[in-house]
Amino acid sequence: MTERLYLYDTTLRDGQQTQGVQFSVAEKIQIAKALDALGVDYIEGGWPGANPTDSDFFQAKPQTRAVFTAFGMTKRAGRSAENDDVLAAVMNAGTPAVCLVGKTHDFHVTTALGVSLEDNLDAIRDSVAHMVAKGREALFDAEHFFDGWKANRGYALDCLRAAQAAGARWIVLCDTNGGTLPAEIFAIVSEVIAAGIPGERLGIHCHDDTGNAVACSLAAVDAGARQIQGTLNGLGERCGNASLTTLIPTLLLKEPYRSRFVTNVAAETLPQMVRISRRLDDILNRVPLRSSPYVGSSAFAHKAGLHASAILKDPATYEHIPPEAVGNARVIPMSNQAGQSNLRARLAEAGIEVAPGDPRLSRILEVVKEREDQGYAYDGAQASFELLARRELGLLPEFFEVKRYRVIVERRRNRYDEMVSVSEAVVVVKIGGRKVLSVSESFDGDSADRGPVNALSRALGKDLGPYQASIDDMRLVDFKVRITQGGTDAITRVIIDSEDGQGNRWSTVGVSANLIDASFTALLDAITWKLIRDGVRGI
Ligand SMILES: CC(=O)SCCNC(=O)CCNC(=O)[C@H](O)C(C)(C)COP(=O)(O)OP(=O)(O)OC[C@H]1O[C@@H](n2cnc3c(N)ncnc32)[C@H](O)[C@@H]1OP(=O)(O)O
Ligand SMILES: CC(=O)C(=O)O
User: Fold this and answer.
1) What is 123-143 written as a DSSP string?
2) Which positions fall inside the Pyruvate carboxyltransferase domain (predicted)?
3) What is the reported pTM?
């Protein structure tokens, strides 16, 4: 028989405690809607009263199927729950559920709160009873529970019992400092259940300080807890919380969870995981983590020749699930780890069929390996790889020839008498028999200079005659620089990501001892690849 497992999302509260993350009200609304579509049971929206954004968000929150939850802390000593203004702001948000964090580690009660152990028990009892009396579903986040258990298990348990007796629907065991390991979590949750707090009322809230938040959450479920708290992409204080982006596919696809439990997340929603994860990164303006389980762009990337060879025979040889199950895609990148199998797969993706054993395949592999030895990296720059292969196969048309280019960077005063930098680029290309000179400044008068590479990109893309229509919707979206060897022989590798109006995105690479030359090579590849993709004919 299957058992119900509840998912509680705290992206909008603990996720907002991530260093560098600050959601606006509009962003919180977008994320709440995405979480609701995903099917989590609870959405913790923030701490009303703690800051204007959270207060405004609770006023503007969307209608959701998920139970909307406001977060706060137990009442402070010396006043009743009824008269605590911080708690009143939380209750005034009017949510059907309220989650209050309270101390369960004796050391924190005496040191952080500076109150007696009995006063803290009163605060838990009184605050939970207050929520229940107001008709709210009450959750109690037992802060530092695992450390508290190890220091004084009798007291930690008394805190849970106080919340239980006052009517808390859920008692959530928090590994607040994130230092507890999975086996210990399993043992302690088992002992808590044996001590009389039923698993159907227990939740788990883990932090990832040892990289084990997901494993710890699963260990708590193995021991009997029936609610998991987590965040999208594992956002959260310090190293983050248990990632729901990892947990949800695990619970739905992996045994014993798949057969034992049912969650509110429908199997049909699973292929949305990559989209939801990337949407959050977009909102945060973060580059998605390639190595994220299930949803990262490398989660199904098969770089090594042995892997790629077997994958082409049967993907199950090196994949734990089909990538489509979570909305991801298989990638077989080219690099110096590759063999002919990677190469043929990549060429086929680019629409180039080459027969097995064709001697040109070995030649392309040799060139890739030689160039990677010089500092190129093709596994993150597939468009440059395709151009290299086409060149060796005689399939690269000539579009234009770069005769020369120049960039200057000048510091000068603007009209407000402020010192500003101005980058100016000149590019001369020959298209057919015609020479074209283009000049561009990456400065619009008053605002900040956008740099020499931006100026070069604008000059190169300014007038390419017959090709202009194809490149007009191109834009440079990311620029990464890496020094591949230090000292006076330093080599610079530049990777440029470009995008067009149809949302296609491609990466190109350039390498040189000179940053500008490396950038120019990558820019040139970006334009050439776009012309090829658009089926433009050469001169
Ligand atoms: C484990 C977690 O992550 S819980 C979530 C934590 N989240 C946050 O802290 C973000 C939102 N917090 C805030 O905006 C502010 O801290 C506020 C508005 C809640 C409080 O601000 P301030 O009144 O200025 O207090 P400050 O932040 O300096 O300190 C927290 C106070 O709460 C007390 N406190 C901490 N936990 C609890 C608790 N569970 N119950 C009652 N009081 C508590 C502390 O002892 C401290 O009191 P003190 O000032 O008398 O020493
Ligand atoms: C409540 C919470 O966020 C914690 O204890 O980590």
Assistant:
1) HHHHHHHHHHHTT-EEEEEEE
2) 5-271
3) 0.82
